[in-house]
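Recall the central idea of this unit: under ordinary conditions, the amino acid sequence of a chain determines the structure it adopts. In this exercise we apply that idea directly, starting from the sequence alone.
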Amino acid sequence: MSRGVQPPLTLMAFDYGERRIGVAVGQTITRSASPLAIIAVHDGRPEWEELSRLVEQYAPERMIVGLPSHADEAPHPMAARIARFCNQLRERYRLPVQTINERLSSHEARARADTDGQAIDALAAQVILETWLNENRPA
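Accordingly, the structure predicted from this sequence is:
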């Protein structure tokens, strides 16, 4: 492998919400992402067992979490909860966790949803991961 070339990575992305967390998976080699699942959140606690099954099955090397912001870049009310979730991911899975601005991900997910009621949260996670892939293209 030539110097400076990054090896292909499997990535897992999250659209964190108070009741649900959308999950998507993707790869840097194909630069693609797919909606994967929705994890329920109860009393501020994600269903960690279900999330752990996904992490074990897809074996991501990095995790990406959407962090909403306001148009003026002011912190979003969910920022502290999302930071806590990021810390929990790092502690549980010992993987790098990055955040990325997801200001318009839910809007884009609703635009992509089909009439079968496709899960918006997982689609939003896909948009988050696609954004990360587009912003982190190899040189």
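The chain has one domain: 10-135.
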